Amino acid sequence: MDGDKLQKIAGDCGVALPGADLEHRFGPDWDLYKVRGKVFLLMTDLPGHPVVVVKADPDNATALREQHADITPGYHMNKKHWITVEGGGTIGAKLVKELVIDSYRLVVGGLPKSEQPVDPQTYGGRA
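-> structure tokens emitted (127 positions)
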């Protein structure tokens, strides 16, 4: 899948999540998807490469980087907790949706219980 399709799938998934908001705080070149003010998805264009940046469990992030050449450490983010996804041969729509939902659940899980729009332990499952 190419980078534009990657961003379309990720953006459509991100904006549909409960309590999610889209902001352009860093300018029109950055899409920030937040839940209760906390970022769970970023999208931008690196030179020639539309990318998606999501939060990931550190162990899962390492495994994903080893399994997919199109997944690298998070661009401008903590390299242990965030990953960057580029369009490529090993990246499919199902994986993109799973990564966005997993990122959302990680961020929601860090919110105070009273602010969580969903139960992060039971919400979503696999896309």
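The chain is about 30% helix and 25% strand.
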